[in-house]
Amino acid sequence: MPKFNQTQKQSAVTFSATVFIGSALFLHWRYGGIAALLTLKAAGFFIVGTFVTPLTLGVAFYGMHRALMSWLVRFASGPPSPTFPAIVRALGTALLAVEVVIGYLVTRTAFFWLYT
Question: DSSP string covering 79-98, please?
Fold first, then answer.
């Protein structure tokens, strides 16, 4: 089980960093053009954000995934239900969508704070 937990942590951190990088690239392209990516301010934004975002959002969403899984394990200890796998997939997908939206909003807030 510890190896599985380590894999989950790495996945959460990697996904969070990917959301940050994708959001930051989009924001730079949308509001500053491609040339805005070649500045020292942009380099600092990417370097700091790539390390800070996984440590904050990645860890928070890993905790939320673990809490959801512990709740689902207690829920699954009852009689088997044919809809349970679909519910688990839907909750996991919803949590990933929420992580993308929150990651984008946090990146956008930091972007506008830094550039305005």
Answer: S--TTHHHHHHHHHHHHHHH
CA-nearest of 111, 8, 2, 3 to 59 is 8
- Single pTM value for the model: 0.84
Q: Mind listing the pLDDT tens digit for each residue in 35-51? A: 888 889 999 999 999 99
What tokens were used for 89? Answer: 């997939």
CB 8 within 8 A of CB 92: no
Work out the number of other CB atoms within 10 angstroms of the CB of residue 112: 11
Query: Cβ contacts of residue 92 below 8 Å, gap of 6+?
Result: 65, 68
Q: Count other C-beta atoms under 10 Å from residue 18's C-beta.
A: 15
Q: What are the tens digits of pLDDT across the range 39-88?
A: 899 999 999 999 999 999 988 988 888 888 888 777 777 777 788 888 88
Structural contact between residues 62 and 12, judged by C-beta atoms closer than 8 angstroms? yes
